[in-house]
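User: Could you walk me through two proteins back to back? I'd like the raw sequence and the structure tokens for each, with a short line separating them so I can tell where one ends and the next begins.

Assistant: Of course. Protein one, sequence then structure:
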Amino acid sequence: MRILVVSDIHANPAALAAVAAAEAGPFDARFCLGDIVEYGPDPAPCVDWVRANCTAVVRGNHDHGAAQNVDTQGVSGFRYLTMVSRRSTTARLADADRRYLAGLPTTRLLRVAGKSFFLVHASPRDPMDEYVPAEPVAWADRLAGLPVDYLLVGHTHVPLTLSVGRTTVVNPGSVGLGRDGNPHARYAVIDDAGVTLKEVPYDVAATVAAVHASDLEPLAKQMLADVYTHGRYVHPPDLPHPHSGANGHAQGNGRPSGGYAPVVLTVAPPRAG
């Protein structure tokens, strides 16, 4: 058994291309845990790659917001980035892309090589928005009545493996937008030996250049450049301080636009699991 798990790509094709290049070998399955779009500069290639290469995909809060063009208001932090990037994300996605995102399920339950997997963006209790502490007791509560070998989640952008009874909880971290001080593209590989949380550097400068070439507001460009470069928001003294909410994450989305050469992503189709 060999499974690639990605999440929170957030319209960053340079980061996704680095993961695809690093893991070009055969897999029994490729799973995407949502938030394919928003924040980053180019959502369409990321949607294309996921649609062509992933065995199972679930919808994240940003996928939902972009697909439904949910109105989000924010004056600071990641809520602000969600608001300003959503405007350009919807413009950069074709109608077929938005229909694809809208049609994604919020959960998937499937078996690969005799193991059971439950896929959800946030948590089984609240599939798109809940933030669950990295504590066994918290996840045990969410796993009640869900006897699976693996629970695969995203949303927090922080990699995690946690044993809770018979279940291994896995968060691969974020491919496209670090939130814990690590700017690399993060993902996970599950095989017969267990779970490996992995990371790979990517061309951050290309992503930052694409953001600066976009039509985002100057504050949003600086905020995103900080996050891409440092793996978290670094407040520059000459800009208003963005006060994020308790988790600093918008419940709905975020997106950008711009004119630049897209990164081409190619990976062989996954084998049947």
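----
Protein two, same layout:
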Amino acid sequence: MINFLKNIIKSTCFIFLSIIFLSQSVFSEEAKKLLSTDWSFKGYFGKFDRASLQRGYQVYSEVCASCHSMKYLSYRNLSEEGGPEFSEEQAKSIAANFEVTDGPNDDGEMFTRPAKLSDKFVNPYQNDKEAMASNGGAYPPDMSVLVKARSDGANYIYSLLLGYEDPPSDIILDDGVYYNKYMYGNMIKMPNPLSDGLITYNDGTDATEKQMAKDVTTFLAWAAEPHLEARHRAGFKTIIYLIIVSLLAYLSMKKIWLRIEPKV
């Protein structure tokens, strides 16, 4: 019985490690073609860099928000644990910079007011048609879960932001189309959004193109998975719990079977 239990544990460990190895192999072919950097949130114990998240929000608000929405985020999320962790007053100040349509009032009319913590991020366009008309017929995707929409999403977005370059001589681009070596098909209607010194970081960090790409990608990774740190903590506790339970079960089983004399 003890040998049987040992075999089960060995088999489970082998299957678990095989799944991890195969999953890494499947995505390695695509991942090795993309740029990468030292993401603090990667790995089983990864955590978001708070300073990077706050800078990433600044890049989003000053560069991306004019075209891209984040309809699944509320302003209160900016002050919650596990995210950028702005103070509540800072989050209120950020929200107050935007106006939302509310109502009706006592006269039955709609009105505008400063946004509150409970409001969703303000959409830059009234509807999809307006968004497409303002961007040459291309619809700017919502960024709330953009990192989850692609395999190896963080590296893909990071690479895309840094992948603009002059097209090869044998490729002719239409007006309003740009060459990006990491975009599927290498053609994209979004012009290069980043350039060195485009913004001035509030914390004094040098706003290079790579730094802004890293920070805004970190922010988008958090937006797509805001409970990542809590999930990592819960997973770690679960693993410790299972190890302890397995050990106790093994020791209990061993003690029970010691009382039984084997038949020769």
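The radius of gyration is 25 Å.

Let me know if you want the two compared in more detail.
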